[in-house]
Amino acid sequence: MKLFIDTANLEEIKEANSLGILDGVTTNPTLLAREKREPVVQLREICSIVKGPVSAEVTAQDYQGMVKEAEELAKISENIVIKVPTTLEGLKTTKILSQRGIRTNLTLCFSPLQALLVAKAGATFVSPFVGRLDDISTEGMDLVSDVKLIYDNYKIKTQIIVASIRHPIHVLEAARIGADIVTCPFKVIIHLLKHPLTDIGIERFLSDWKKLKDTLGR
Ligand code: E4P
Questions:
Q1: How far is it, in rounded angstroms, from Cα 195 to Cα 75?
Q2: CB of 29 within 8 A of CB of 38?
Q3: DSSP 8-class letter at 106
Q4: CA distances from 210 to 200, 202, 214, 218 (A)
Q5: I want to staple 119 with a disulfide (CB 3.0 to 4.6 A). Which of 158, 166, 179, 201 is the partner?
Q6: Residue of 129, 132, 160, 180 to mutate, ligand 1, most atoms within 8 A of C-beta
Q7: DSSP character for 50?
Q8: Count of Cβ atoms closer than 10 Å to residue 87 Cβ
């Protein structure tokens, strides 16, 4: 399973990249707004850090506007994947971009049937948002299982990016289901690695080592 980071923050991206576990980045207008910099400049810098796909979202509402924005964003770097909302206009955009060889990530996917349609329109990636479904008392991971089942039934090539991840259990379940990718906030990536027994184990080894050194008088 590939691991993307869901942020537009350069420090977080650099740190995650230095761990050797990072396969790509997803951004959205909210995440870019948090960085308070010109989005194109920020995206260009992100693409210079990470080799894999970097999702950049269009904000136009109509397909003509989306396609125009997508073409500009695609010029930033060949890493750029165009994030398109799962709407009628988004589907038209996806069809056009896919014919032009521009990769897309269909975002804000909340139902398996939306996922089926975006795949038919030629989406490279689809992003089911699990956390936002959990927030409204609906099992977010059930959506991922359904999308995976449908894509497997028809040998659909669109890759599933599990998005709106809130905690490590989402990542564990995504891996059990066999999702292609998860995109996590930085703090969730750090939590994936943390285990209290690892910390206690290190402490114990270091204290026993110190005792040995003290006994040997060094
Ligand atoms: C995915 O690509 C989105 O940027 C993201 O996962 C949204 O997550 P949120 O629901 O925490 O805002």
A1: 42
A2: no
A3: E
A4: 15, 12, 6, 9
A5: 158
A6: 129
A7: -
A8: 15
Check pocket membership of 183 for ligand 1, CB cut-off 6 A: yes
- What is the pTM assigned to this prediction? 0.96
* Structure-token pair, residue 34: 């948090």
Catalytic residue among 2, 51, 75, 83: 83
- For the question of residue 83 being annotated catalytic, the response is yes
Q: Which residues contact 140 (CB under 8 A, 6 or more apart)?
A: 128, 129, 130, 131, 132, 133, 134, 164, 170
Q: What is the pLDDT of residue 20?
A: 96
User: 């939306």: which residue's tokens?
Assistant: 114
Length of the chain: 218
**Ligand 1 centroid from CA 184, angstroms:** 8
- pLDDT confidence tier of residue 190, bands split at 50, 70 and 90: very high
One-letter amino acid at 112 equals P
Ligand 1 atom 7: residue of nearest CA:
164
Phi, psi of 51 (to 5 degrees): -80, -35
- Residue 182 phi/psi, 5-degree rounding, is -120, 145
Rounded CA-CA distance 127/27 in Å is: 12
